[in-house]
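pinned: reference chain
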Amino acid sequence: MRATAVRILHELRARILRPLGLRHTDLPVTTAIWGSHAHGYFVMGDPPGEVDLAYMYPWAWAAGGLNTSADDSATFYRALFTGRLLGPRMMRELRRTIEVTDSDLPSRSGLGVQRWTPCGVAWGHSGNVGGYVVYTWISPDARHETVLMMNEDPKTVGDAANAAYYALLDRSFCER
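pinned: its C-alpha cells
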C-alpha cells in the first residue's frame, strides 16, 4: 500500500530533495550508485575479511537505503527543525516521543526522529544498515549540529571502536 498514488522516489525528490537543494542525496533503485559515496563494509567469513556492501544496494531501499552526504544530512535536519518542511501542528506531533529501550544510546523516539540528552537536548536520527552507521544531531534552536558517519558495520568493529565513535559523537555535539 502506498501513502500516495505516486511512487515514493518521485515524492522524495519533489517535496524534499529538490526544494532543499540536496544534490548529494538520493534513494538508489539500482546497484549503480551515482556520484561519490562511502563504501560500506561488513566483516565476514573465515578467515574474516571485509566485504564492500555499497553495490548490494538498493536492498535496504526506503528502510535505510538513502544515499547522502554529511552536508545534505545537516541541511535536511536544519530545514526540518526550523519549520521549513512541516507546520506547527505536525512539529508538535514530531516532538512527542516515547522511551527507546533497544538503542545503543539512551534516547526517545517520535515520528521518524529521536531525542537525546547528551548535554542538553539533541534532535535527529540514527541510521544503521549493513556496512554503515550515521547519527545526525541538531540543537532545538537549529544553531548547532553534528553529523557523524562510519562506513563499517557497528556489529563488526568491536566494543572499543563503537565506544570511541559514541564518545566522538558526544564531544562533537557537546563541546561546541
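why pinned: The helical segments are 8-20, 70-81, 88-94, 154-157, 159-174. The two ends are 44 Å apart (CA to CA).
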